[in-house]
Design brief:
By secondary structure, the chain is mainly beta. It has one helix and eleven strands. Strands 3, 6, 9, 10 and 11 form a five-stranded mixed beta sheet that branches. It has a four-stranded antiparallel beta sheet with strand order 2-4-8-7, with no helix packed on it. A two-stranded antiparallel ribbon has the order 1-5.
Length: about 120
């Protein structure tokens, strides 16, 4: 009889550590889980906010651990951390760092402001 190995590494990190995205573009932060069998369930949280981010509206969470924010706005700026949980063992590890999202003023935004 073949037994199923279940494991998760304690090494969980957010990449990149700093992400600069022009206003209105798509932001992508990655939750890197060194190892998890089966694949870890990844959840994201923005510092200073209650609860985890869920897919909906401009936010998309992928099974691979990516947090994607469409049409990035200034209020999206901040620190984001991820948590990885092994669905079988319920072992949970938080990211060793957080990713900082910074929204910049892109050329499109500057041209709108200039013509206003």
């Amino acid at each position: 009889m073949h037994s199923r190995i279940t494991d998760i590494s304690s090494k969980v990190a957010v990449t990149p550590s700093t992400l600069q995205v022009p206003f209105g573009d798509t932001s992508r932060l990655y939750c890197a889980v060194k190892q998890s069998t089966p694949r870890a369930v990844v959840r994201w949280k923005k510092q200073g906010q209650r609860g985890f981010i869920t897919t909906g509206g401009r936010f998309t969470l992928t099974p691979e651990g990516v947090l994607q924010i469409a049409d990035s706005k200034f209020e999206d700026q901040g620190q984001y951390a991820c948590t990885a949980e092994n669905p079988v063992t319920s072992a949970t590890y938080k990211s060793v760092n957080s990713g900082s999202l910074q929204i910049t003023v892109g050329m499109f935004f500057l041209s709108i402001m200039k013509n206003a």
